[in-house]
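Figure 2 data, in text form.
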Amino acid sequence: MRAESAISGLIKPPKSRPAAVIVLLALEVILAFLGFASGINFLLDPSGGTHGMDTTMLVTTPIRDFTLVGLFFVTCYGILPILAIFGLWKLPRWRWTDAVNKWTGENWAWTATAATGVILIVWIAVEVMLIGSPNGFPRFLQVMMALMGIVILALAMLPRVRAFTKLVN
């Protein structure tokens, strides 16, 4: 008997990824790219000029420039999706994530993915409440990002995705 055959019986084969998980991975990759690109641009130019915006649109908000928006984008739309991608791909279970795992009954990657969808939806809703929905491309982006959040959340709630991320003790 070859050594790899003896060992392969000890290794649990990885779960096959449902199509919805593949779509989630793709959406998270797109979101991470947009989050880092937009966030870094806002951090480099807090006036919003690189995005064709200016700080006058922030008059009804508690902030005066786009620095905090840039930090938010890098963190919530860049780093969080990258963590979700890694988690959905590998499904690692770490002791320090057990509190979240036990709370949801899912791997932490599911929680990170669902949180990404919720954050997108809430951000756009608050944005529209505070600055409105500017005509043209900004409105298109608001609609597209809200739809992305809804799709991410809806896909995360699918039974096949939940079964894929379900904790096995």
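Caption note: Confidence is low (pLDDT under 50) at residues 1-13.
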